[in-house]
Amino acid sequence: MATSVDLTVKAPVTVKRIDAYLAAAMAPEFSREEVKRCLLAGKIFLNGRAAIPKDPVSEGDRVTGELLSEKTTTAEPESIPLDILYEDASILVVNKPAGLVVHPGAGNKKGTLVNALLGRNTALSSMGGMLRPGIVHRLDKATSGLLLVAKTNLAHRKLQAQFASRSLSKYYQALVRGKIDYEEGHVDVPMGRDPKIRRKMDTARPGEGREALTHYRILKRFRYATLLEIKLVTGRTHQIRVHMRHLGHPVIGDTVYGGPAEAAEPRLALHAARIEFLHPKTGKMTKFESPIPVEMKAMIEKAEKKK
Length: 307
Hints:
By secondary structure, the protein is α+β, with helices and mostly antiparallel strands. 19% of the residues lie in helices and 28% in strands. The protein has helices at residues 18-26, 32-40, 113-119, 153-165, 239-247, 294-305; strands spanning 2-8, 44-46, 49-50, 62-68, 84-87, 91-96, 144-150, 169-177, 184-188, 191-193, 201-203, 213-221, 225-232, 270-278, 285-289.
């Protein structure tokens, strides 16, 4: 299991070393030994530089990076059908259904997209580790749509570089609550982990959290809802869902960031509909599209008919 970390040290600082501070902040999800392994592997940064376990922390310091749990170390092949839109020697493009978890983690050790990929007995890049072979980026369990998978380490590195340089473009369609007035706009609000509920993300105050930028434009307005095309500039966990809630227009069906009424919806109305990137082998601009799934299309039709 991998968990992103973005913390600002606040007073009073009761522990002085970063390994002890991070273990206390992330308990009980991660042990101090797991934190120490991640520090030694160069996965944790203190004020932007790679940290080691004995580095001291002070009020105002920023701790970022990724923690990896060793509780589950390998993923097993499983015979799970996948909707493969494209495959060559370098990449796979998968049309992920809503409800499918991308890779194994706490509570989801089997039945994931990674288990399905391994069950196909095809080559996958090893850069993501044993739990995430081939996985260059992720989609939430509740989100459907396009996911890129790298079959070679070279393809993985080249795709990661495009994500880092923001030359790769991802477009989503989302049905959100309420009517948005402007034809297009953006949300430029930093994000971090919710301080009270660790599995959730939240907007952060200026100077805290990580940069998060979301562009949107209106595709269609309904009386009580709006259909949006959304382009992610950054790729933070739950970014669209958090930013739409911040606007006052949560994604319909979002039981985590919406209200109680969302539990009655059939799914999260969020779909990764288009992706554009330079093919890691040929260097040519490549584009794939995924149509809106039937169950989300029904939600849009329902919104259109609501008077």
